[in-house]
Write a structure and sequence with these properties.
about 375 residues; alpha+beta; six-stranded antiparallel β-sheet; elongated; binds guanosine-5'-diphosphate; binds manganese (II) ion
């Protein structure tokens, strides 16, 4: 689960990481009042959407009058923000963060993530922070400094100093940087974060380090122990079908192809997508209906797949281990009767009660294409979709 910048900054503030004063609002009028309440002469109006790259996409505006703040908010609110990190469909912007403007002398980068190879949390920092950090990482990776935390000791102060020296910080800024990095580690661990980024971490013209941007991805598997974070979930930032699938405990990911896949087990789902591609087709989705699935979930899965108008064929590939194939067949038949199936459906059942399931499909009077094995199923689906 991702957080908005304003939510992440509020967590930063709780952990003692300096952030600009600001307020999240949802109308141009409130943006004006927020700026007035903040005072000062320069404000920033920032689109709140689950993406970076907002600056380059017109989602971050520097304003010098209250009229400009109101104008910027009215332009940004309601826009569909398309950045180099979103899909071409973009993301809706329902809130803007109005902040006091900062005077920047340097833009640094500081981030942490789980390094899966080392099984440890790795911190990265760079003196070349700001809007081009991706290019820096790709073209001049030596400008990214790294340190890895030993979980039995936690982050040690020398690790912070090492990065601070590497960034060329001096005197009090080394202390400020170390404090921020220690706080970031504590936040990362306590809230079960999987990725945290401050880009840019600025040095102001008066020498203060401030987190000007904030990105947090939470580990969804640990959300059950952070109810206060679950409350920050913003469903408007997610793919509609994926959100609906999550409500029925279905593991669903939208893809670009024309063959809708309904499979049980993540491994079999991956193999099915490979098989479809091998025979010249493109999967429209990844869908794992789960190991112990029921007829109701099969019906929901069917609805979900068919709600995608790119789908020209449905391929059902089930291995009955714990789940019984006759129950799956029942779910497919119920779904087909209740919602209708406007496209060809290829079904391959294997394992527990497979024969019984196939017979049910054949005697249902509905027009299913059955297949005896995996290859035949994939070939039939590709042909039907073409
Ligand atoms: P992102 O593009 O989505 O990563 O959004 P950021 O929050 O990082 O903002 C993009 C850029 O806007 C930053 O790298 C800064 O250069 C600039 N920016 C943001 N806030 C301020 C500010 O208060 N003052 C100034 N001068 N620039 C700012
Ligand atoms: Mn940024």
């Amino acid at each position: 689960m991702n957080l908005h910048e304003y939510q992440a900054k509020s967590l930063f503030a709780n952990y003692g990481i300096p952030v600009p004063q600001g307020q999240s609002v949802s109308s141009p009028n409130d943006a004006r009042s927020a700026a007035q309440a903040l005072g000062g002469h320069v404000w920033v109006v920032k689109a709140q959407a689950h993406t970076g790259g907002r600056g380059k996409a017109g989602g971050v505006k520097l304003c010098r009058t209250l009229d400009e703040v109101e104008q910027a908010a009215s332009e940004i609110l309601g826009m569909t923000l398309v950045t180099n990190q979103t899909s071409p469909q973009g993301l809706p912007v329902n809130n803007v963060l109005v902040e006091e403007g900062s005077e920047i002398s340097q833009e640094l980068y500081l981030g942490a993530l789980l390094d899966r190879t080392r099984s440890r949390i790795a911190f990265m920092a760079s003196a070349a922070g700001g809007m081009n950090i991706e290019e820096v990482a790709a073209e001049t990776p030596d400008k990214i400094l790294t340190t890895v935390v030993n979980p039995s000791t936690g982050m040690l102060p020398f690790q912070c100093r090492k990065l601070a020296f590497g960034l060329g910080l001096k005197g009090d800024q080394i202390k400020q940087f170390s404090k921020i990095m220690m706080a970031l580690y504590r936040l990362y661990s306590e809230k079960d974060i999987s990725l945290i980024e401050i880009n840019p971490l600025i040095v102001t013209t008066s020498g203060q380090l401030i987190a000007l941007d904030a990105k947090i991805n939470l580990d969804s598997n640990a959300l059950y122990r952070h109810q206060e974070l679950v409350a920050l979930h913003d469903i408007t930032q997610e793919d509609e079908k994926e959100a609906a699938a999550a409500q029925h405990d279905l593991n669903y990911i939208t893809l670009d192809g024309s063959i809708g896949c309904m499979v049980n087990g993540a491994g079999l789902a991956m193999a099915t997508m490979d098989m479809v591609k091998l025979h010249g087709g493109e999967p429209a989705n990844f869908l794992d209906v789960g190991g112990g699935t029921t007829a109701e979930r099969v019906t929901e899965a069917f609805k979900l797949i068919l709600s995608d108008d790119k789908v020209k064929t449905v391929l059902v590939n089930i291995f009955g281990g714990i789940v019984r194939c006759d129950l799956i067949a029942e779910g497919i038949i119920t779904a087909a009767r209740s919602i209708g199936v406007p496209v060809p459906v290829v079904v391959r059942l294997e394992g527990t009660n497979a024969q019984q399931g196939l017979e049910m499909l054949e005697s249902s009077g509905l027009d299913f294409l059955t297949a005896k094995d995996f290859t035949e199923a994939a070939k039939k689906a590709v042909t039907a979709a073409a």
